[in-house]
TrEMBL record, chain A:
GO terms for cellular component: cytoplasm. The keyword Nucleotide-binding applies. Pathway: Purine metabolism; IMP biosynthesis via de novo pathway; 5-amino-1-(5-phospho-D-ribosyl)imidazole from N(2)-formyl-N(1)-(5-phospho-D-ribosyl)glycinamide: step 1/2. It comes from the Bacteria. NCBIfam families: FGAM_synth_I (TIGR01737), PRK03619.1 (NF002957). The gene is purQ. Part of the FGAM synthase complex composed of 1 PurL, 1 PurQ and 2 PurS subunits. Its EC number is 6.3.5.3, 3.5.1.2. This is Phosphoribosylformylglycinamidine synthase subunit PurQ. It comes from Alterisphingorhabdus coralli. The active site is at C87, H195, E197.
From TrEMBL, chain B:
Part of the phosphoribosylformylglycinamidine synthase complex involved in the purines biosynthetic pathway. Catalyzes the ATP-dependent conversion of formylglycinamide ribonucleotide (FGAR) and glutamine to yield formylglycinamidine ribonucleotide (FGAM) and glutamate. The FGAM synthase complex is composed of three subunits. PurQ produces an ammonia molecule by converting glutamine to glutamate. PurL transfers the ammonia molecule to FGAR to form FGAM in an ATP-dependent manner. Keywords: ATP-binding, Cytoplasm, Ligase, Nucleotide-binding, Purine biosynthesis. It is found in: Cytoplasm. NCBIfam families: phosphoribosylformylglycinamidine synthase subunit PurS, PRK05974.1. This is Phosphoribosylformylglycinamidine synthase subunit PurS. It comes from Alterisphingorhabdus coralli. GO terms for biological process: 'de novo' IMP biosynthetic process. GO terms for molecular function: ATP binding; phosphoribosylformylglycinamidine synthase activity. GO terms for cellular component: cytoplasm. SUPFAM superfamilies: PurS-like.
Amino acid sequence: MKTAVIRFPGSNCDRDIQVALRQLTGHEPTIIWHSETTISDDIDFIAIPGGFSYGDYLRSGALAGRSAIMKDIVRAAERGVPIIGICNGFQILTETRLLPGALIRNSGLDFVCRNVLLTANPSASPMLAALSAQTSYSIPVAHHDGNYFADDETLDMLEGEGKIAFRYQDNPNGSMRNIAGVVNARGNVLGMMPHPERAVDPACGGTHGATLLNSMLNAVMATA
Amino acid sequence: MKIRVHVTLKPGVLDPQGRATHHTLENMGFDGIEDVRCGRMIDLEVAPTVTDEQICDMCRKLLANTVIENFEIVRLDAETEAA
């Protein structure tokens, strides 16, 4: 099981996801700098971490979305490689249009940093199949621009096709229809604002994040 | 050639910055403000060979996110000459 973490200038959750992936897979993830142009074909799982890529200039994720490595990430997505974008990674995936919608400023104007309860939709993607729709997953959020926006047509499409991966039980940022995470039509690209990689150790913030990441990694291992 | 691009949030997209500014203006005693929307201004200095179509392409691909934003392109030199 080979995983990769993409690092941008301003990424700050790259090490958290690196530690989480190492712990959960037993293998060291490959760290890929944004100016590299290729992702090796043998990578089974790509993580785009949170942070403030390029200082969030222009829009969160906009400049990172046009960096050199993203062309190969788009190609990997088209090949069906599982890709997860967390927080700024989610913003980057929407900016590249690998995922629909956009993330705008939190409705309350505040930076929100706390644990939230999520409801999962296990049928949204094989990567979520091990989760339960009846369970509340407690996962930290930490963002200023996490308010998910899309036009009604897109929201209806996401709901109709069952592509809303996670919803907030108590919406912290004004996201439309309480959306915390979505997947693409094929189900191999997942973006979410909450940080599962910050909840893999009982000593800091619980282990529901490990449950989420394990579901994704086990699905990848089953097909690899 | 100077090009100014105005990027504004589409109508209906929540603009908390505009709302907070509106609220503060009212608190300061300014009456009759119906709405405040905040946007972004980007100035480009480009060769005369750069076409409007190319600038539109830059806007669509990077400067504006057309899911949430509109953009408007103004050629500043022409404006200055006219003045």
